[in-house]
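PROTOCOL LOG
Step 1. Enter all chains and additional molecules of the complex.
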Amino acid sequence: MRNIKASTITQTVAQLCQQVNFILGDDVLVALKQAQQTEESLLGREVLSLLLENARIAKEEQLPLCQDCGMAVVFLEIGQEVHITGGDLYAAVEEGVRQGYSQGYLRKSIVSKPFSARINTRDNTPAVIHTEIVPGDRIKVTVMPKGAGAENMSKLAMLKPSDGRSGIIDLVVRTVDEAGGNPCPPVTIGLGIGGTSEKAMLMAKKTLLRPLAKPNPDPEIAELEKEILGRVNDLGIGPLGFGGSTTALAVHAEVMPTHIASLPVAVNLQCHCARHQEAVI
Amino acid sequence: MIEKITSPIDAKTIERLTAGTRVMISGVIYTARDAAHQRLVQTLDKGERLPFDLNGQTLYYMGPSPAKPGQAIGSAGPTSSSRMDTYTPRLIAAGIRAMIGKGSRSLQVKEAIKKHKAIYFVTIGGAGALLAKSIKQAEVIAYEDLGTEAILRLNVENLPAIVANDIHGGDLFEQGKARYRRR
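Step 2. Run joint prediction.
Step 3. Record the structure below.
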């Protein structure tokens, strides 16, 4: 058994909330630079340069990459041999979000009651916390600020088993087509296939944490990812929807077994500002 | 070519600009997003006095991150304009002549743009740190209780934008997609 203080968790979350909003991952920068080489539209190439310039300014001046600093989605992988001391785990995470968003001059975007009193909670809490128990004596904390532009374009469909592979592809292509410029393309497409409705959605989100454009290790799934990427980039939407050949940077798909009667498919879109950072305590 | 224009934007300039034209906007613009739009329209419905004269003005769909000490404003990129579509025809009829945001608009908004000779620009979604450089001054003029959704009067210099919908029915999103669609 290893003891980890709740205050250490708070500190880690607070630091991650800031770093993740200021610094774009190298994998995203590489993908944007590659897209500059292949993008057919001149305006599209210029948009990509401005996005890279934005990333440079944000990092150098410690400014939010995007004014939408998102709802803080926090993934916790907790080793089963960890004992958390000196406080409540979830309260520690919320306090980390509170401190991080305040100290980093990050935008607070959470309203209290979604369909009635939409009053800003002013500290960006509550966060959305996903907890997994894993082997070991460490805690892995991942912070993913999710902006609403892309999140609002998410889709869940409970397809018929007979819809099969082509039904999945059609759904994803239609979702990206209808979203147009709204999710701030070039997007990363998170795709969860199988399980139940909520499991599919969670897989779609979590697969966005994978290093950008790293294919699924299963060749059958990797092939599906590749085919969808090609289809989506044929749509012509382009960077920010202004027209072009780079609508998506990558498709990340995750698959699990499902019920004999089901084919759940969840699509979670990630804007070009693909922010996530992790730390191991 | 990039055209330099001044906000409030005069009728002649609006008439001349066509979808796809790149511009740099300088002058005065006002921020308003979802909650501010709702209040502006409610105020119009009640026939009460608006917090600023809409006539000929430009709206920027933007809610900034907080300014650090010494900064005029925090990160300041556009939000998705489509969420404002419900309110926009009403605000255009009441005098708004230009809007800056991201993403495409509804048919009703495009019709209102044509009818009242207004214009819709898009700027660079997700480039908040970069776009903040064009904002020289920011002042809350209404709805301070809304936090980031309050209405700000901004002084901008060379804010980069592209004409997305013009008075002739031109649409950047449709044009771009038609040109690069491969199936």
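Step 4. Note key features.
Residues 135 and 156 of chain B are 4 Å apart (CA to CA).
Strands of chain B lie at 2-7, 22-31, 58-60, 98-101, 119-122, 135-142, 151-165.
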